[in-house]
Amino acid sequence: MTSAATSSLAGHFSSRMSRPNHRPSSTHRGQPTSWTLIFAVLVCFASHVLAIASDAASPVETLVIDHRVPFREGQRWVMLSEQQVERRKVQKRVTSDDSDSSPTESSESSKTSASVSVTTTFSIAVGKPTPSTTSTTASASPLPSIFDSLPSDFEPGPNGQPSNCPNFISSFLANSTFQQCYPLSMLFDKSKSFFEAQRSLVSITRTLDATCAANATFCSGYLSNLARDLILPENCGADYQAGNPVIVEAHLAMRAYAPVYSAGCLREPDSGAYCYATAATNRTNRTGNAYLYFLPLNKTLPGTTVPDCGECLRQTMAVYQVATADRRQWIADTYVGAAKQINTVCGPGFVNETLAAAVIPSGAAAGVAGPSAWFVTAGALLGVLWWAV
């Protein structure tokens, strides 16, 4: 097939060569135009390539940004980097601090040497506090005072005469028997000095040592009789009837002496510190135990109370539960709600939620508010609790 095509092409070429006078057809006259077009395209392509090469060879302009900042150094300005400026500032501060520290240290040392520290320390243990051998001769601060701020607006007497209430209060405050009893229950609400004493573990421990040294059985009867005399018409009866808060709360505190004494004098089994002292000076988030000691004073626990579920809490509520046997005590009205609130936090059964069996106090038939029979039971319970832990 190839040979046939070759023969045909050769014959055609021979025939054209044998006819020199043959004129090309119109079809073959357009061929030079095609070559011209191809040449023009090649020229354009070559010029484009040359243009690209020329652009690539041209130099590129670079913008250099100077990040340095002016910094005053002595009497002249210099250009420094930000890191250099920071280092210069730090060096200047260090130099300034060093120059200022020497007079300050000498001043402080002179103040320290000039001042004389006079402190009194006590070792806290079971029993009365005893000054340590390293104590100075400075006298200890006085104990908090009961009624250290009395109001002046007392009600007049039965016949319009000036009230005898302030005189009656001053009389029993000066009485040596009252001072020996030193009732804790009367310090809670109306003693600013007691509030200040609670800021220090040493101060509140001294206060509790004094109040817990009293003969509780005797003082319970004494305070009950004093509460009866307080609201007599010739004393502070008119103010009590008028709802004077000082007299009303004083009467309530006298009646609540026994349960407050029993709870306030409890000690921690491990450390021997007073439970109340720990609760009053507690600096943690759990400060709810301090509210427990107001239950016998007809105060309820705040709804946000978060108690410390320890042995002090359990023993305090056990004392209160026994005290509810005397239904005349306000603790009989506030105990159940507090117990349920505590069990919600500490777990079911942590404390007893029921009142003790009612007991008629001795002397009640004669109309005398004598010592409650539950007090002896509470004392026995405290002994059992103490030796059980």
From TrEMBL:
Full protein name: DUF7729 domain-containing protein
Domain DUF7729 per the UniProt entry, residue ranges: 143-354
InterPro entries: DUF7729
Region (Disordered): 1-30, 83-113
One Pfam entry name: DUF7729
Biased composition (Polar residues): 1-18
Bias (Low complexity) ranges: 101-113
